[in-house]
Specification:
Blueprint: E1 6-12, H1 18-29, E2 34-36, E3 45-52, H2 60-64, E4 67-75, E5 77-79, E6 88-91, H3 98-104, E7 110-114, E8 123-124, E9 127-128, H4 129-135, E10 146-157, E11 162-169, H5 175-185, E12 190-200, E13 203-204, E14 230-233, H6 236-243, H7 254-258, E15 265-269, E16 275-282, E17 285-291
């Protein structure tokens, strides 16, 4: 029986939602369970890191990874959704020069506060903000700013109104909000007009396949999420104990634990070098993050 536990790298095209892309893969490959680690809007394309079977428990790893995007910001018009799919709510005849834009870019590198778009999946009083915005029955309260992180951000001109960009950011960053904020900061109006996710952590979009092309043979082992992690080789009886959630059997590994850093992830393998699960070093000792079951 072929295991259904693993990682799939999907190159989502424009025009479909992330959920639709996953459903295509789920049906084609007859997967019992599949999830992803970060939504792409329907107008956006690029890399979705999907997790199948029991590996959905590991979604927190790519969710927390740095992500790389390329795209375009168009000046001269702002929209209610902060992207090209929305209605124009403001226009400006002023379009900043490349020099003006480059001058303010340092303000958007590092850690800073960002106000999420009104059209977002964040919840207000238990309801999705975008659902409230679409209903339009009452004003939407201001979204509270959130701490975000950008590692790198560069731009280049495309034409009189459009600038291409490349950006690397952390979890929770909104490219649509960046376009909106740049328009306001430069006394203009702007929206996100093109977006493609090109990297998630160690995974690049060049490794991905479309939902229509991907095969079960493309399933990557869960340990690819933990490249560079330390490895422990365990005996079969210890591996089976971990499958049953029994960590007391790891007491014999105290010496090895003392040589590791707190909060460090460890890939444990069987004696044939097959990855079997993930441990984490905690202040109280070993913690079990994931144990590969004997069957999918």
């Amino acid at each position: 029986m072929t295991s259904q536990n693993g990682i799939l790298l999907i190159d989502k095209s424009k025009g479909i939602s992330s959920a639709q892309a996953l459903n295509i893969v789920k049906k084609r490959l007859k997967l019992a369970k599949i999830g992803h680690s970060g939504t792409l809007d329907p107008f956006a394309s690029g890399l979705l890191v999907a997790l199948s079977g029991s590996c959905t428990k590991l979604a927190f790893v790519p969710e927390a990874a740095l992500k790389e995007y390329t795209g375009e910001i168009t000046f001269g018009a702002a929209t209610d959704t902060d992207d090209l799919t929305g209605k124009i709510i403001k226009e400006s005849s002023h379009v900043p020069t490349l020099e003006e834009l480059q001058k303010v870019i340092p303000e958007y590198i590092g850690s800073f506060k960002q106000t999420p778009p009104v059209y977002s999946a964040l919840k207000i009083d238990g309801k999705r903000a975008y659902a409230l915005a679409r209903a339009g029955s009452k004003p939407i309260p201001p979204m509270p700013p959130r701490q975000v992180y950008v590692k790198d951000f560069s731009v280049e001109p495309i034409d009189k109104k459009r600038f291409g960009f490349k950006l690397v950011c952390g979890k929770g960053f909104y490219l649509r909000a960046l376009a909106r904020d740049l328009g306001e900061r430069l006394q203009s109006a702007a929206h996100l007009s093109l977006l493609r996710r090109t990297r998630v952590g160690e995974f690049a979009v060049e490794q991905a396949k479309s939902p229509e092309e991907i095969e079960i043979a493309d399933l990557l082992s869960f340990d690819t999420l933990f490249s560079g992690a330390h490895t422990l080789v365990l005996e079969g009886k210890l591996i089976q104990a971990l499958r049953n959630g029994n960590l007391s059997s790891l007491e014999t590994l105290q010496l090895k634990l003392d040589n590791l850093q707190s909060e460090e992830f460890i890939v444990y393998r069987d004696q044939n070098d097959n990855p079997q699960g993930i441990l984490k070093v905690t202040p109280k000792g070993w913690g079990l993050i994931y144990a590969l079951q004997s069957r999918a």
